[in-house]
Amino acid sequence: MKDIHRIGILTAGGDCPGLNAVIRAVAKTALRKYDLEVIGIEDGFLGLIQNRMRPLDNESVSNILTLGGTILGTNNKIAPRRYPMKVNGKIEFRDVTDRCMEYIAANKLDALVVIGGDGSMSIASDFVGMGVNCIGVPKTIDNDLYGTDVTFGFATAVSVATDALDRVHTTASSHHRVMVVEVMGRNAGWIALHSGIASGSDIILIPEIPFDIEVICDCVAGRSRRGRAFSIVCVAEGSRYQGGEQVVNHVDPTSPDPIRLGGIGQKVAADIETRTGIETRTITLGHIQRGGTPVAADRVLATEFGNQAIELLMAGEKSRLVVMKGRTVTHIPLQEAANKQRLIPPDHPLIAAGRNVGTCFGN
Ligand code: F6P
Q: How far is CA 251 from CA 76, 226, 234, 248, 339, in A?
């Protein structure tokens, strides 16, 4: 087994509350318990491609536990296998993995801690295939990473979305309106399901259950007839009409994951207003779900995950993804999680509980 003396750490993909808490836990455990050298790689895999790295000491990771974003910077557009370069005035994509391997060797990195989502784990898998020991830490507000019951950042996003849904409740009820709140989550409805249940939303729309607009309007109109002249709709950005497509906000061809969803809330709101005659407004929460201070649960999870990443490395484990199963922090082969999404199963108990308390899921 190769001894571990010096490790690289990077944060990749979209930013997420709790990234700094993981960086702190990784660096402090590595420095204090094992006397390792810790090298921070800037802006995710872009820093590896461009050899932008800096040593992290106790001082540089102090006072960052509660900080949103990432002190290392991140990037959700670059993959070493398709790095955009200008050739004769035109952008061409080149594979620069070999260059990354040279920098890993030149910087004497014995292992990499990769904090990221499914796309980042897929890139890390490439490096694992070339003999680099990568330990993954599952990050995303979407909670859609395969192999773990929960990712850090999710609890904060749910808390922000729940707060927003609670706040629009008062306006909806005072003005007898329907309020549609669009939340993030890509192709998974975890944020919508949890914040919708936590806020008592009347209608929850998730990508895993394509909806029938008639069912939604019947629910809104039925509430109105029963003297409830307002409704709250929590809609995940990836939701779609039965037989319809997801609504794409824009396409970024430079990104390995080029589709950016958004706009379903507006469509649903317009349809509800036209069909029921009840004034309907939309709010798209967007990136405020990703920003700011992580809630306590995410700080705890991030600290457990970061610590476990180093403990795994020092126990001689190779290329593992730290995961949470039930209430236990454990690990799986990193390559298992690459390019897979964990969607909500249709028989999920929270959907059943929601239906039992009268929540409409649009079907
Ligand atoms: O994966 C996190 C996430 O916030 C998704 O919920 C959302 O679809 C996407 O990232 C937005 O990406 P960007 O920050 O590039 O707009």
A: 13, 43, 24, 7, 19
Instruction: Write the single-letter amino acid at 356.
Output: N
Find out whether the beta carbon of 76 lies less than 6 Å from any atom of ligand 1: yes
Residue among 183, 237, 260, 289 to mutate when testing ligand 1 (max atoms within 8 A of CB): 260
How is domain 6-152+294-337 classified at the CATH fold level?
Answer: Rossmann fold (3.40.50)
Element (H, E) at 231: strand 231-236
Cα separation of 13 and 186, whole Å?
A: 13
pTM value > 0.85: yes
Picking from 160, 164, 238, 158, the residue whose alpha carbon sits closest to that of residue 195 is: 158
Pairing of the two strands 37-41 and 320-325: unpaired
Q: For 176-190, what is each residue's pLDDT tens digit?
A: 999 999 999 999 999
The fourth-level CATH superfamily of domain 156-289 is Phosphofructokinase domain (3.40.50.460)
